Amino acid sequence: MIANILDGIVLGLQFGLLATGLTLIYGLGGVLNLGYGQIAVVSAITVALAMDAGMPVLPAVGLGLLVGGLLGLFLDQTILRPVYRLRGEGRVLLSLLLTLGVSFIVDGFLNWRFPLKALSLHIGGGAVEILGVLMRRGSLVASAITLVTFAGLFVFFRSTSLGRAIRSVIEDEDGARLIGIDPKQMLRLILILSGVLAALVAVTRSMVAPVDTKSGLSITVFALIVTVVGGLGNVVGALLAGIILGIINVIAAKLIGSYISLIILLGAAAVTILIRPAGLLGVKE
Amino acid sequence: MLEVTGLSAGYQGNDVVHNVALRVDKGEAVMIIGSNGSGKTTLFQTMCGLLSPSSGKVLFEGDDITGIPAERIARLGMRFVSAARHLFPRMTVQEHLLLGAYPNRPDPETMSIVLDLFPRLAERRRQRAGTMSGGEQQMLAVGRALMSKPRLLVLDEPSTGLAPLLAKAAYEALAVLRERGLTVLITEQQVPLAMAFCDRGYVLENGFIRLEGTTEQLAANPAVRSAYLGVT
User: Fold this and answer.
1) Is there a contact between B89 and A182 if contact means CB atoms under 8 Å apart?
2) N or C terminus: fewer CB in 10 A for chain B?
3) A175 and A42 in contact (C-beta within 8 Å)?
4) Which of B48, B95, B105 is the closest to A164 by Cβ?
């Protein structure tokens, strides 16, 4: 059981980081990015191709993160422009449709050009014993990177003036504008950040299991479920929900079967919405 | 310092304020008084850039700022404190004050001036804005605006939702700021409070400026006395 919980935490940390990228965009701009998983996949394939071409691991990963960030910026500058002209529900719906379209195009392109490409980063060295359980070194490195990233995000949002400015837009957009903060500029920054986070999740995920060209949709779906459970626009909620759902996922897969675990996750999300419509840590409007 | 001419604005093509002209000179305190629904808040929102005017001009220190978005106007040295306050509920008092100076580095001297002016904020620096009382929130909204060292402070109904004693205290704090040379424009429903504080004023009725003059002139006007001062 301890082994399952530890595996669940490893998975859950990645779920949490995945949801963070999605939830920040939604909280800040009311934009739902269904092309999120494709950003992760394109970044992963970039890393794999760069390594095929002989680039060492670290620069290749750096390139992958850069591509993730640029894709976020590209979305902001192109298909999200008409989205920003709308407000409220219209904005959510149009962003959902347009980014879904982008995800289909990207998926189609990847399956055409790189049907069998996948990224898996092998972290050398033997298993490490934790609480009497043997853990793969790849899982531990992935979790460590994720935890450091979360710590960095917390420091950024708590203690830097740019981080506080971004939070202020999530809290009250007009209030932020009245003190000279440009919400569009903050949203652009967050789209870049979310692209980098998607790429980072793809890279850390590939240390545990291969990330292939068909992973995009499932990444987006997991991110959405965790976002809904954690509360929209809430980083702490995303982390908490990620860990809880990660543990549920691993235990359900173990006890019943992996085919059922996604259904159980969806069930958990549905129950959360029924009991706490704003998510675990969400605040009622 | 601020000059508004022929300003009309409203929502979805229906103007709520019509052809408004007003002026605020450096060092002055000016009031816009009017009853509920007279268009004070629409006028305020148009001047601060949250709403685009359908016609007219707004000049700040000689620059045309008509129709410029709120975030750019805020950086020009004119700060607006809305009646809705627009605080950030889950952020602390301290974070609000630091953000007030954004994108500049918060100035420690300004911070101590604000905390001296509102000792309550000093006591509650770590408290979240959403858990504070109406009076404290009003202080925080003004304090946040002051952190940017504005040359002109525009307040929309600073006494709204405050108990009479707190409303009086709010105006006492404003009086201190005036002595430091701040120029102030206020919209107010509780006319006696604003009258005691301001040099000049405008009366807004149904979206039109009906009267203007020094506070003495307005206080002596029979229509103003019966409508806003409760004197018959």
Assistant:
1) no
2) C
3) no
4) B95
Chain B partners within 8 Å of A168 (Cβ): 88, 91, 99
What's the ipTM? 0.91
- Pairwise CA distance, residues A60 & A137, whole Å: 20
**Do B185 and B154 meet the contact criterion of CB atoms below 8 Å apart?**
yes
Residue of A172, A178, A181 lying closest to B48 (CB–CB): A178
The CATH number covering residue B22 comes to: 3.40.50.300
Min Cα–Cα distance to chain B from A167, Å: 8
Domain ranges of chain A: 2-275
Topology (CATH level 3) of domain A2-275 = ABC transporter involved in vitamin B12 uptake, BtuC (1.10.3470)
- Give the domain-ending residue among B125, B150, B175: B150
Contact B99 A165 (CB under 8 A): yes
pLDDT, tens only, B33-60: 988 888 998 999 999 999 999 999 999 9
How many distinct structural domains can be found in chain B?
2
pTM of the model: 0.89
Range of the domain at B18: 1-77+151-232
Dig out the tokens for B9 from the structure.
């604005």
B166 and B231 inside one domain: yes
